[in-house]
Specification:
The chain has 379 residues and is α+β, with helices and mostly antiparallel strands. It has 3 domains: 2-85, no CATH class; 131-190, Winged helix-like DNA-binding domain superfamily/Winged helix DNA-binding domain (Arc Repressor Mutant, subunit A, Orthogonal Bundle); 204-378, GAF domain (Beta-Lactamase), CATH 3.30.450. 54% of the residues lie in helices and 12% in strands. The termini are far apart.
Length: 379
């Protein structure tokens, strides 16, 4: 019985080591070891008794064979009793060998599967944009020429958040000086924005040099002087200086952005540009009709640019603002590239045909002076 039991023990030990959970494995091995030890102790004594009783060796052998079969049957019962059942409430996954959860070899393949769900390309888990910063920029972008102040309710509607949440955003911007409470209600842009605008103009370099020249031009002509620059498909007004004699309401304000197809201040920036570049801009950009004198046909504009390039300056009549005369000249850098436009805007009644030549001379001279100073600064 000891030999048969030990063989069965070896079999169950090997099986339990691979297929049994820890607590059931301990139970099965405990029962089997107990049976094995019982057989190992009882077998010699049983053999001695049988021989003493006069049984022959064959009878003793048969007795041991029967004992071995009985031991195997007992162990089989133990296996069946201790094997995990499919009807168990616990998931079969509980009985699988545990795998490390925080190692790179285990976590990395799972992460790849998550990133590629439904065949999508791998995407970064890092948020490229900060939602709080995004909302702050949206709030600042709500301020427009036709909307000089905004309310908490308007911000809430724009962002799709509760009014209390919108008010907290406004309070944060107000604390930093980007907006301030308006005496009549709502919020308006704060002094921090003016400071940033001043720094932005200085970052272009040309503004600090151009302002004194613009002031002199405004004083000598008695009209409004502008400094403009192209930015992609728009014209940006960098600086504007008013005459002390006359005030004029214009579409161009400091920092405003307008289309490229109307006004001397815009056309003078395109006249020395590559014609293919200009054609591409006209193809993708809108050419709005500001007044009845505004030209929106790209071919006609191209013809006008050729004439402006030949004469060296631009003169327009009421193309952007009704009744306004515009005279503009290019500002060139040390490489003879047009980097800005200098212009004077005057009402038609103060700028008769006989005065246009005078304005052209003053504007072109101021543009050349500004270009010379820019060349000196860049050296």
């Amino acid at each position: 019985m000891g030999i048969g039991a030990q063989s069965a023990l070896n079999l169950i030990n090997a099986s339990a080591a691979d297929t049994y959970p820890v607590h059931l494995r301990a139970t099965a091995l405990g029962w089997s070891n107990g049976v094995g030890r019982l057989g190992a102790v009882a077998a010699p004594q049983l053999g001695g008794w049988l021989l003493a009783a006069g049984l022959g060796p064959k009878a003793v052998f048969l007795t041991f064979l029967c004992s071995a079969i009985l031991s195997a049957a007992i162990l089989a019962v133990i296996i069946v009793k201790t094997r995990p059942r499919a009807s168990s409430r616990q998931s079969p996954a509980m009985y699988r060998p545990e795998r490390p959860r925080h190692t790179a070899s285990y976590a990395q393949p799972m992460a790849k599967e998550v990133l590629r769900v439904d065949g999508d390309a791998p995407r970064s888990g890092y948020r490229e944009r900060n939602s709080t910063a995004d909302r702050a920029l949206v709030i600042l972008s709500m301020f427009q020429p036709g909307r000089l102040r905004v309310s908490a309710q308007q911000v809430a509607d724009e962002l799709g958040v509760a009014r209390s949440t919108a008010y907290r955003y406004l309070q944060t911007l107000s604390a930093e000086g980007y907006i301030e409470e308006n005496p009549d209600g709502g919020f308006r842009l704060g002094m921090k924005v003016f400071e940033l605008a001043r720094i932005a103009r200085q970052s272009y370099g040309i503004s600090a040099v151009a302002v004194p020249i613009l002031q002199q031009l405004a004083a000598s002509t008695g009209e409004t002087a502008l400094l403009t620059r192209r930015s992609d498909d728009h014209v940006i007004c960098l600086e504007r200086e008013e005459s002390t004699q006359h005030r004029l309401r214009l579409s161009y304000e400091r920092g405003s952005s307008l289309a490229l197809n109307a006004g001397a201040s815009a056309l003078v920036l395109l006249a020395w540009e590559d014609p293919d570049v200009v054609e591409a801009m006209f193809t993708r950009a809108q050419l709005p009709q500001f007044t009845e004198n505004t030209v929106t046909d790209p071919r006609e504009i191209q013809q006008r640019l050729v004439a402006i390039r030949d004469q060296g300056y631009a003169v327009t009549h009421g193309e952007l603002d009704p009744g306004a005369l515009g005279v503009a000249a290019p500002v060139r850098d040390e490489y003879d590239r047009v980097v800005a436009g200098l212009s004077v805007i005057a009402p038609g009644q103060r700028a008769p045909q006989t005065r246009i030549a005078e304005l052209v001379d003053l504007v072109t001279a101021a543009a050349q002076r500004l270009g010379s100073q820019l060349a000196l600064i860049s050296q």
